[in-house]
Hints:
Blueprint: E1 9-13, E2 16-17, E3 27-31, E4 36-40, E5 46-50, E6 56-63, H1 68-82, E7 87-93, E8 99-107, E9 121-128, E10 132-134
Antiparallel strand pairs: 1-2, 1-7, 3-6, 4-5, 6-9, 7-8, 8-9, 8-10
Amino acid sequence: xxxxxxxxxxxxxxANVITGFAAGTFIKASFNEDAYSLEVGADGGGCRxxxxxxxxxxxxxxxxxxxSNALLSAQAILDxxxxxxxxxxxxxxxxxxxxxxGENVWITKMADMERGKELGDVTWILETIRLEMVQGGxxxxxx
Length: 143
């Protein structure tokens, strides 16, 4: 039997452990481009072309009430003012083997500010020149 437990998921940005995840999708890691493209000639012959671009993004979605919004805001402000907001980042699924990381990660811009009757979420976009990712599964739990 397998069990997914979102409380076992960790996101670390620099020295900060991120908390206060949104109820829906709270993390998305993705490469910016495909690893290979295909070029097909007029006669139907083709060639696979390797893309050396290993850049990627993290989308972290938090509740507006999360204290991590203040931490990420401070990092975004520091980077805008000094250029020193580049930090290592890791997301890890403690219920399984999925992991994504980048050594040099920065916040692309301050998260949008929206307010309304409902609490809502805040989405932060972080980018890295080299994303490393393993799309693992959920570990088996012996019963």
